[in-house]
Structures are given as C-alpha cells and as structure tokens.
Amino acid sequence: MEKRTVATQPIGGQKPGTSGLRKKTKVFMGPHYLENFVQSIWAGIGGAAGKSFVLGGDGRYFNEQAAQVILRMAAASGAKKIIVGQNALLSTPAASHLIRKRKTDGGIIMSASHNPGGIDEDFGVKFNIANGGPAPEEVTNRMFEATKTVTSYEILETQDVDLSTLGTRDLGGMEVEVVDPVEYYAELMEELFDFQKIRDLFAGGFTMKFDAMHAVTGPYAHEILERRLGAASGTVLNGIPKPDFGGGHPDPNPIWAKPLVDLVMGPDAPDFAAASDGDGDRNMILGRGIYVTPSDSLAVLAANAQLAPGYAGGLAGVARSMPTSRAVDLVAQAKGLECFETPTGWKFFGNLLDAGRATLCGEESAGTGSDHVREKDGLWAVLLWLNILAETRVSVKELMSRHWETYGRNYYSRHDYEAVDASRAEAMMNALLGKLADLPGAKFGVGVVESADEFAYDDPIDKSRSEHQGIRIIFEGGSRIVFRLSGTGTVGATLRVYLETYESNPERIHESADAALSGIISAAEEIAGIRAATGRMQPDVKT
Ligand code: VG1
Ligand code: CO
C-alpha cells in the first residue's frame, strides 16, 4: 500500500450549489475531477488528519467507485476513521443521523438527490459538518476557493475495500467500519413515533402505497413500513435501488411520480400514499383523491405534530424557506410560535435547529424535517403523517379540509422552466431587478403590488448575511410571486416561478390551484415576460 501525491491543476466550475457539487456523471468521472474536489473539501475543513467521517450515497451510477476513491484519499490524508453504509449506501437523513449519533467530524454524501442518475445523467458530492447538516456557505466558499488553487492530491494506491459485508477493516492505518444503513435510522424513528398506534392503524385495514422511485429509500421503507409497522407486503413500490433509478427522475412530484398520483385519483386508491426522492430527503404526500402540496404538508404537520410522542412537548418554533407558502406562518401565529423565513436550501436551517429556535422546518420543494437530524427527511415526514392519521382517524382529505377551514388556504404552485439558455434567464432576472423599485403601487388584474424586493437573509444566530436569494413581489391581500434561478441543475439554467394566493372564505377553499392562481400567473407573465425570455409557452414542470 503506497501513498501517492498526484499532480493536478484546478478545474473550473467546482462551486457547490444549493446542495453540494452536482455535475454530469461523466464530468465527475473525468481525470482528477472527483479527486480535486475531495482534496478541496479537506482544505475547506482544515485537513482530514485525525478526523472521522461518515460516507454513503444514494446508490446512483458511480456511487461505489467514488466511495472507493474517497476512502483512499481519506486514508492518505491521515483520517482516523470512516463509517460507511453497506455497499456505500446511506440515505441523506440516515447519513445526517449517523454523523450525530457517532459524533464524527462530518460526512460526505454522494448524491445528486432528485436529479436523474446514470452514466449520462447526474452525480453529486456534498459535505456535511459535525452537527449532521449541510456545510454552511462559509465552509463551501472555502472549498470552492481551494478548487481554484489545488495543485496536488494525496491518495493511497491499493485494492478496493470490501464494502459489502458489515464489520471493521483497515485501510492503510485508517479504520473503515461498514454499517447497516437502515438500523440506526429505524431505531430513531421508533423513538419519535408511536409505532404501536401505527401498527394498529394498518391492522385495522388502512391501506398505503409508498413509491421509493427505484432509489435509496426502498430498503428503509421495506424495513420500517412493511416489517416494523406491519403494512401489507407490496406497500412499497419500486423498492430496489437501481443505479439509474429505473430511467426515471427520482423526484417525488405530480410529474415524475405521476403513476402514484393517478393511483390515488382512481378507483383503487389507497387511504394514503407517499413517495421519496433519490437520496431519501424529500417526500410527497397523497391521500385518496388528494395531492397535498409540500407547503400545506408543513403547515399540517406544524399544527398536529404534538400528536406524535417525539413532539408531545410542543414545538420551539418553525422555519420555512422564502419561496415556501405562508401556510405555516398562519399556524405559527395561531400557536404563538416563532416563525423564520430562510433562503432556499436546508443548510440555512442548521443554526436555528442547533440553537433550539426551530423544531420543524420545510421547503416547498417537498422537503420537511425536524431537529431529529439536520437534513430534510422523507420517511420521517411520512411517519409523522401516519402517526397523525393514526391518532385522528380521519382521511387525508378531511384533515386538509379542517385545516383550511381553520386557517384559510394558501393556494400554491411552482412553475419550472428547465434547461433554458443561461444568459437569457440571467438577463430576465436582471431586468426584473431593475424594475423592482417601480412595482409598489402598480396595479395588475390580481390587485396592487404592496412590496417588491430581492430577498436577503440575516442569520439571527451567527449573524451572517446571504444576499441575492430570489425576487419576491407581494400583492395587497397576500398573493405573492417569487422568481429564482435553481442552484441544483446541471444543464443551462432552471427558472423557478413560485405562485401563491390566500383565500380565507370557507366557500372558496376547494377550488383547483390552477383556477385560483390564474390571475397571479398572468401577472407573473406580465411583469417578467417569461415566455419571451425562456422561449417556452408553458412551464416544463408544475408542482
Ligand atoms: C432545489 C430546491 C430546494 C432544495 C434543493 C435540494 O434547489 O428548490 O428547496 O433544498 O433543491 O434538494 P434549487 O436551487 O434547484 O431550487 V435535494 O432533495 O435535490 O438535495
Ligand atoms: Co434529495
């Protein structure tokens, strides 16, 4: 076993985005690409020597090869120990939990999350810090700076480590411990939720489908839903992780998980259905005849979390990303809870969770989570829903109706324009920025603009400031349009347009979102000229 120092040169474009570095798999497989980035991770955290880390990924193409490279580099840089999920698999929330449980110095997660996988699709690498959460901007900025100056990296020349069997082995003086990826996570879920109540619910004939979308949550869902909670076998669909996610987009939304949506809208609908994404941190919630928007799901969970043992003492506060609908704010207001508005991306919740200011957090992009880990957590959200349904014994539809009757309804939709020409998308955003000062007071079909700005966040805990976090246009009466460019895409630019309108009249809380939002959709077009800028008549994805 020989340690080698390999000469390299900086490679452009290795700037981590909303959630780690994501590129085409073939880019990651190119000479020195992964190695440069991993060496820059070490640089960004002050070196790997003497440290311990967690390592795992969502099983997509290149997952295990990348794990072997990272292990050899960690050993060569003097890391003390790496805890790896068996076969290099770990869902993102399970990795976060493992970092916390085993008190490591952080972890490396190999995932491009909801992006498709395969040799011609996407791969990604993300570093999480010792609290289990995504590295904050200050750390990712240091990593990016290091990618611009890296001239060599350290790697061990040796055979692959066996990651298929559990146990501890040595790699050039570094300990490699291969652990069951599901065990610790399932135990944590048993602590938070009333498994007996949920078992009784299933035993009483309650039916469910969970679509793992050929991604990493399959083994977790089989163990927790079918084995520990007694859901009928066959509850978990597409439960065997595949390197290309069966050729699909492992993104749980009404477009990419359409078969599941069709099922709940059809004659054979189960009582409850859910899906998760590539790395297991997102969730989609459905009931017989109903799709629950992620923003509504966050609000319902905030309103009912105390029904689960892990949250029986109530919530310290709640937080949502800026584009997420303001439904949860209304719950917080009614319950007298602090409510925070953060930029997009889970890393901005970390400080609030660490400081005990927020217990529940969520994003409109199907991410919900709590202070049990420092990532969003797909199966956790599903289990909290199940716990609430087991306690209330009402249907998802009924629960939503009651919620809207109490709080009013925030109709919500996100329109994505994918892979558009990056310079045109940026020009559109710049033109919008130039217009903001003139918008307040302007009249559109839906009403008068109350305020318009570019969102910036001042972290109340560490006092850091994050600017350029999206453009928001707020109308009198509570309607809102948000414009952002995605930070997770790998081709061109993705424009996200977030649309929201509030309705408190109980007679009007059962409309279709498209109808309720039609005025705000036209206003967005009128203000930004989306069609001209993107060259598209319709969004590619509507969630
Ligand atoms: C998207 C979502 C954001 C989420 C991020 C990572 O980012 O909008 O809410 O935190 O993906 O999710 P962007 O920059 O493309 O809008 V995951 O499940 O892909 O790690
Ligand atoms: Co994800």
UniProtKB/TrEMBL annotation:
Q: Which GO terms describe its biological process?
A: carbohydrate metabolic process
Question: What residue stretches are annotated with the Alpha-D-phosphohexomutase alpha/beta/alpha domain?
Answer: 14-153, 185-286, 295-407
Q: Can you name one GO molecular function term for this protein?
A: phosphoglucomutase activity
Enzyme Commission number: 5.4.2.2
Q: Which domain of life is it from?
A: Bacteria
Catalytic activity from the UniProt record? alpha-D-glucose 1-phosphate = alpha-D-glucose 6-phosphate
Q: Which Pfam families match?
A: PGM1_C_vert_fung, PGM_PMM_I, PGM_PMM_II, PGM_PMM_III
Alphabetically sorted, this entry's keywords are:
Isomerase, Magnesium, Metal-binding, Phosphoprotein
Q: Name the protein family.
A: Belongs to the phosphohexose mutase family.
Name of the protein? phosphoglucomutase (alpha-D-glucose-1,6-bisphosphate-dependent)
This chain's source organism reads Boseongicola aestuarii
